[in-house]
Amino acid sequence: MTRAEFIMQVKDELRGSCALPYSVPDNEINRIINQAKKWFYRNYKEAVESQHYVITKEQFETPEFKKTRTIILPSCVVSVYEVKEISGGGRLMSVDADFSDNRLIAAELYLSPFQSDDLVMRTAQYAYWDLAQAFFLDRISYDHNANTHKLKILGRDPKKNVYVQAYVEIPEETLFEDWFFIRYVTAAAKVALGRILGFFSYNLPGGISVNSDSIKQEGEDELEKIKEQIDEENAPDWFFIWH
What we know:
The protein is of the alpha+beta class. It contains nine helices and nine strands. The longest helix has 22 residues, at about 210-235.
């Protein structure tokens, strides 16, 4: 859905599909959308997705880095939650090689995916692989600012390529298809409409008065409910594995 189509959808709801003669100007809806996007990218888990980056070691040898100790990340990066120095892919540089080499202990050979119960063994193999990352990825102390898009490296200079795992914004046209975002923007538009209509006396044809306070209150109540639902959607998983 394009932004123009999304704006028309919001205006249609405000006007009751043209049953009412008033709405919110396009510029105001655009302002509401831009503010809603910023809120959703920071507070709604479905508005972001995981992305991986590799910063080559040459980037840490440039005069710009040595002066500020910062790397500029893409503007779509919302947060960074993993920065590690890459030191290898395993003892033999491959997880499959690690588990098939005859020099490994019997317990590791037992996990070979080429024996019976392949699916169970493969699951156990990759569970080990996930835990083993702590031994060949060295964590880097860092600080990230979402407004300046700067990733500041703290402590020593990395000597190898650095792996960065981050959350990035999903495209806005994808966000326009999300039910929570649709309802949030529509509710905010109702608040804006009630505020606009409350600035002056406005009557519909036939002398029917408009209750701007009711429109504004309806929007505020819906916004509150949506934020509560999003908080419930963002409930954390309290299962941790310590390396």
